């Protein structure tokens, strides 16, 4: 959604509120998570002594795929966003400053940028997830498999030395 800020852009102390459903069904995270159709977004842009500050709250539910055991699990999206909206960028790399388009702000861009930056590199169903057995592929969270552990490589070197005798 594009929000017009003409009423607050020159009015310190004023604010513009927003409340909408952001469609993110096109977002993909390489199969690591599937996004809901929409995020519920509420927030406002305030003019604080001439600076435009956007605060927003975005909520929804996504389905993740555990990086270790490959099981799907649900996770809440609950993002608190704060961004400065500026007519020009001082520092191109500052992730918290967004460019105005005339007297409009592209709310979707700000929220999706934060959503992507906040995605964890590795989504795990639990910190203690045991993952899959490398040999038989069994999900070790369901119990141990029958594979024998590999021989410690230091021991196998020792074994070779003994064999060569
Ligand atoms: Zn897992
Ligand atoms: Zn196994």
Describe the structure.
This protein is mainly beta. The protein has two domains: about 1-130, no CATH class; about 130-165, no CATH class. The protein is about 15% helix and about 35% strand. It has helices spanning about 105-120, 155-165, and strands spanning about 1-5, 15-25, 35, 40-50, 50-65, 70-85, 95-100, 105. The strands form two sheets. Strands 2, 3, 4, 5, 6 and 7 form a six-stranded mixed sheet that branches. The structure holds zinc ion (2 copies). One zinc ion (ZN) binds near residues 133 and 135.
Structural class given helices, strands, pairing?
mainly beta
Q: List the ions, cofactors and other small molecules found in this model.
A: zinc ion
Proportion of residues in helical segments: 10-25%
Distance, first to last CA: 77 Å
Q: How many domains make up the coordinates?
A: 2
* C-alpha Rg (nearest Å): 25 Å
Tell me the overall shape.
elongated
Tell me the number of helical segments per DSSP (H or I, 4 or more residues long): 2
Largest sheet, in brief, is: 6 strands, mixed
Mean pLDDT: 90
Question: How many E-type strands?
Answer: 8
The topology string of helices and strands comes to EEEEEEEEHH
Strand residue percentage: 35-45%
Oligomer: single chain
Low-pLDDT segments, ≥5 res: none
């Amino acid at each position: 959604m594009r929000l017009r800020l003409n009423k607050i852009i020159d009015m310190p102390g004023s604010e513009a509120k927003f409340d909408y459903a952001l469609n993110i069904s096109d977002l993909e995270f390489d199969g690591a998570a599937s996004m809901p159709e929409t995020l519920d977004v509420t927030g406002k842009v305030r003019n604080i002594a001439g600076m435009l500050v956007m605060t927003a709250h975005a909520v929804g539910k996504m389905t993740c795929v555990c990086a270790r055991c490959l099981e799907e699990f649900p996770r809440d999206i609950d993002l608190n966003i704060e961004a400065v909206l500026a007519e020009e960028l001082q520092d191109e790399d500052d992730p918290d400053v967004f460019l105005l388009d005339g007297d409009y702000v592209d709310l979707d861009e700000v929220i999706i940028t934060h959503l992507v930056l906040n995605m964890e590199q590795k989504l795990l169903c639990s910190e203690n997830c045991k993952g899959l057995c490398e040999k038989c592929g069994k999900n070790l969270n369901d119990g141990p498999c029958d594979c024998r552990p590999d021989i410690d490589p230091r021991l196998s070197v020792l074994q070779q030395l003994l064999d060569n005798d």
